[in-house]
Amino acid sequence: MNHSLRFLKTCFVLSLLFLFTSENADAQSWTALGTGTNAQIRALTVYNNELIVAGDFTSAGGVGANRIARWNNTAWTPLGLGTNGVISTLYVLGSTLYVGGTFTSVGGVGVNRIARWNGSNWTAMANGFNDEVLAIWSFNSEIYAAGRFTMSGTTAVNRIARWDGTTWNALGTGLNEHAHALRVYSNELVVGGAFTTAGGVSANRIAKWNGSIWTPLGLGMNNEVYALIIYNGNLYAAGIFTQVGGVGVNRIASWNGSWSGLGLGTNSTISALTVYGSNLVVGGLFTTAGGIGVNRIANWNGSAWSNPYGSGLTGGGDVVSALGVYTSGLFAGGNITIAGGTAVNNIARWGDPVAVNEIGTGIPAEYKLYQNYPNPFNPSTKIQFALPKSSFVSLIVYDALGSEVATLVNEQLNAGTYEVDFDASSLASGFYFYKINAGDFTSVNKMILIK
Is pTM beyond 0.70 here? Predict the structure, then answer.
């Protein structure tokens, strides 16, 4: 009998441990961003410590927002009056946010498919373009735009142009068809799209510009390129193509002087790419990646595909068209209504929920921000703070350059002592700073992440 009781107790304890570790392993989940948006999201970026989203929508979180809005992990707000047409792309350079799309006015100002926001006002960029802007990037400290356009005012610019601070200029004879994506790789501007010539040179859907001439990247692709990114020192291109350099691939390939596929690739379109932690994240219309069942989102770690995102993203038009990272979370936007079983409206966040735990029962005598522990840490640490009275608390983590990487607390709290966990698994080793604002109290501490 004693042996039987011991056996049953052991099984019970092991069951509890299994449940506990399973719950911890699945702690990350999809969450909605308030009530989301009322139509598709096409682009994401981070600007002035807020997540900027853009697309087709006219409201975000129930607030009027014409095709562009910002999210601070708590609430949605519009960027001025927004635009009168679709925004297809966003890009940040220094203190300026650039937007491109089909619109002809922004903030009530007449513009043609491209404009810039300085944090408070919208301005035009000369004559703009006669058709849609699909991509914006910087090269040699100048802004480049690409898309479907062929003219800027009376100047012929075939689907790609350079901004010199005053006017838009052509890049040779440009492209014979539209472009979707821009990136800088090996000190050259890489362009991906639907074109088959660049500067009059044969270039199948992908080409590079060194500031004076166009050259192809190998034999290129047999169909359109929708997205480009740099990951682990290589250039990655994705879209709807099934061959690259004459070799069969499925919608994604990498370039480091020659082309190679990524295993079995995906079974349908890839529209968006981002880097999250040590992984390349892909989003689109696909339902398998590397032969693994997924729903519109998957990971590539440099050698294999995986699906860490539960049941993925579904509903709506079932497309992920934008991916980005903000405050240690992965954000996916598109035309979706369900994320991991959770109702969302076109945008969702994947990551660990940040819990603010009250510790102790007494009321502190003064405000205080304690040193995190452990420190140095890898990959998580705890941060404690004390409030002598009820206060609205903001606790934000910054990198060594002063850019926000995580908002840990942004809410009203009662008097007491609190602790939060900071998970830095998606960040690189280095020095970080965490700053608290509570009432009239402000304090900053330094911490070290070592991986």
Answer: yes
